[in-house]
Amino acid sequence: MAMNRIYYTVAGEVIAEKRPGQDRRDYVTDILGTTAGVASSNGSSVERYEYSPYGRRTYTAGAAWFPRLGWCGSHGYYQTGRVGADLFVRARHLDTLSNRWSSVDPLWPREHAYQYVNGNPISHVDPTGQTPQCIAFVACAGVALAAVTYACFGKPFFCCLKDWLRKRPVVATAVITTCGALGVACLGPAFVASLRTLATLAGTGAAAAASANAGRPYSDCCTEYYMMCQAACSAAHWRNKYGPGWPGCCENYCSENYKYCERRRDTPRSWECYCGKIKTRNPFRWPI
Fold first, then answer.
1. Burial zone of 277 (CB within 10 Å; 0-12 exposed, 13-18 middle, 19+ buried)
2. Dihedral (Cα; 150, 156, 158, 164), 10-degree rounding
3. Is there a contact between 195 and 176 (Cβ–Cβ < 8 Å)?
4. Between the CA of residue 12 and those of 36, 76, 122, 127, what are the distances in Å?
5. CA dihedral over 151, 154, 155, 158, signed as positive or negative
6. Bridge partners, residue 183, by sequence
7. How far apart are CA 60 and CA 38, in angstroms?
8. Along the 288 residues of the chain, how does pLDDT read in single tens digits?
């Protein structure tokens, strides 16, 4: 029974190959992940290759080992040997003679129907068979969402998000601008309207905070934070029985920070200020 080839990967990129009855061959790749040569397991060169800008092999020197993962091979570009579809890139086929995809881009008409990486194969790769801008957009949006989710974990999400945008206008504007530009490149001009709303909210946050009525739009959020603070204090006291001083200090902590949230107090109040003598951790951290 014939044995299959074995491929070795690190962080999703192919680094080596082993064929039945042969030693492992390590891929020697360039900055785009193209297999420029293969080496034996002891490090000696076995074969070298050169390619056209769109992946057609133009030169071979060595033992004619011919890896199927050649041009951009570490990203999984697989040579099929089929005319008009000689490279399989996970989602569709690329023709290295016509320098075009053999099927329509899933993002068409927002992207060119058949053009590979917007005509720039020297600087970009497309390991999903879509467009590199979409990969970058998904990464940017994912990091931003993870950061906000971490900051707002255990709190009313939309209230916390509004506070986060209001208190960090410069960071919020930078994130929205960067992810927005990538989103427009990936998803088209329909993405612009929602971006303008978010950018306006972030950009006017500093001015709103300085206004005497800045807290009013967030009153509902402050009330919700206050109720969550009281509930956390009650639950912690019930579980641990901290003694008669606990309810008063915890209530003061919640109510004084509620006043700060509503802008009726100039500075926030720390947990240690009211309950520092009780050996316990803060059961609820105000998003201030």
1. exposed
2. -50
3. yes
4. 19, 9, 22, 11
5. positive
6. none
7. 11
8. 445 888 888 877 888 888 888 888 899 988 888 988 998 878 788 889 999 988 888 888 887 777 888 888 888 888 888 888 888 887 788 898 888 888 887 767 767 788 888 788 888 787 777 666 666 777 788 888 888 777 766 666 666 676 677 777 788 888 878 877 777 665 554 455 555 555 565 555 544 444 433 444 455 678 888 888 888 888 877 666 676 777 788 888 888 888 888 776 667 778 777 777 776 777 787 765
Q: Which amino acid belongs to residue 208?
A: A
Strand 87-89 relative to strand 57-62, pairing: unpaired
If you ran DSSP here, which 8-state letter would residue 79 be given?
E
pTM confidence score: 0.45
